[in-house]
Amino acid sequence: MDGEVHTSGHSGSSPEGAGLEPMPRLFGGLSGRLLWLTVIFVMLAEILIFVPSVAGMRMNWLRDRLDTAAAAGIVIDGLQPSELPRAVQDDTLLATGTKVIALKKDGTSRLLAAADMPPQVDQVFDLTDVPMLISMLDALDTLFLGGGRVMRVFGPIGDSDMIIELVMTDDALRKDMLKYSKMMFLLSLLISLITAVLIFLAINRMMIMPIRRLTHSMQLFSEYPEDPNRVFTGDRSRGELAVAGRHLAAMQVELQRTLKQQKNLADLGLAVSKINHDMRNILASAQLMSDRLTDVDDPMVRSFAPKLLRTIDRAVGYTSEVLAYGQASEAAPRRRRIRLADLCQDVRDILAIDPDASIEFLDQIPSDVEVDCDSEQLFRVIHNICRNALQALMNFDPEDTSMVRRITVSAHRIGSVVSITVDDTGPGMPRKARENLFSAFRGSARSGGTGLGLVIARELVLAHGGTIALVEKPGPGTQFRIEIPDRPVSLDDYRARA
After folding, report:
1. Does the reported pTM lie above 0.90?
2. Helix-strand-coil split of the chain, %, nearest 5
3. CA–CA separation, 162 and 324 (whole Å)
């Protein structure tokens, strides 16, 4: 199956009058926001660590009190049946920071020391086996809601079956927890700041500075894109920003080339516009003199005179449209239905193929095929393609009889679309010309060509709402396919014709 290669060119534009926008300060732009976000995220991570940490600190604090009271309780229990003096009890309670110390042994409980027995107990904590979640909830409750509450704490003494029990207030525990929280906050803030600064320096070197270079290069280039010294110069590293920098440099070089081509086109249009006036006067004079040839009695002159007049008429029409082309616009097509075979015959006559060149022009257009188009514009399209094919075939050695040199023009209608094919048996189109097929000054298939012919042909075909494409073919040569649709008919026009 044949494949079609569609290639089109586009022009770029550069902003004019755009001043350099000042870059944000180092801590006011992306790097500054990255620094503060790092501090915030590290602090959030420290909060997640803080809750189990403060819960562990609380459990260690309570177990330390139990161990101290257990050591004192075992000593006191060895003094049975004697009772401790009040002074010793007060010193023991002061040393452990409790109000009541009790020891449970062999199923019986003994009050070892007591002072200021509270009327009620607000909380009871069993330190035998405390789940982590319960420990964290109790820690947060003591930290935020504690103070002045009486709690009863008990747990086993080592691996024995004895249980030590304490009654105390949570004031000392909450005070130590607040000190621990303050220390953890300052430590977390210090860690977050150090981490943020290190990340900031690393990211600033790896990302922010290259981004600033890219941005600054784009600003400088947009201010004066024609200056080759303002093209971005990147490095050969493998990072994503290095790849982006190389692509930016390639785009800037391509844009400079496009701008240069546009300038050349503008200069060319200006030069042609200046020549146009004198050329039109010369052609007008030639037209007046050609009109007199129709009065000559020579049959040969009479047969060539109409063709000469049509050729001069077309030349005059082309010169009238030079100014419009110099302004990068073609006149809107003046469409009407024409017989495509007649137009192809005109193309054949204008080509004037030398019979000695052994180049065959094969017209395979049925006589009943009509196309809805601007006849002059479609003539230019087909003539451009056929002329390129003729020039390609002229490069072949005419003495080589094994090579068939032929240009074939065929057409058929499918519904409301007329498909026109121009095929030749030449050497084919080079790869570079295929890649820049419809690009001015770059799509020429021969040395010294401008590549404007196909650019103009494509513009004229698109003005008709059609398409033009290079068709991949298995054999040698080049084949173009042009598709021209009929104009849509409005319902009112259809009723008027009916």
Report:
1. no
2. 55, 15, 30
3. 109
